[in-house]
Amino acid sequence: MVSLARIRNIEIRMFAGLPVGPHSEPPIWMELFDHDQQITVDSCICHEIEDTLTVFEDFTGQANRAAEAVRQDNRLQD
Asked: Considering the entire predicted model, what is its pTM?
């Protein structure tokens, strides 16, 4: 597992899977993990390295939106 980014309590992780055949590349598993809740928020399997960038950008957007929602909620409570 490699941690690619952490935005507040949410981490974007990458895992290498096992190849499905003797001449195939292993799939890459991407995960959006919420450390406060201890749950996987979203995940995706990528078979091409180029696809991981698209997933990373999507997960970054999700994490930023979640962080902004927490900030707004904290402002309302103050």
From this structure: 0.84
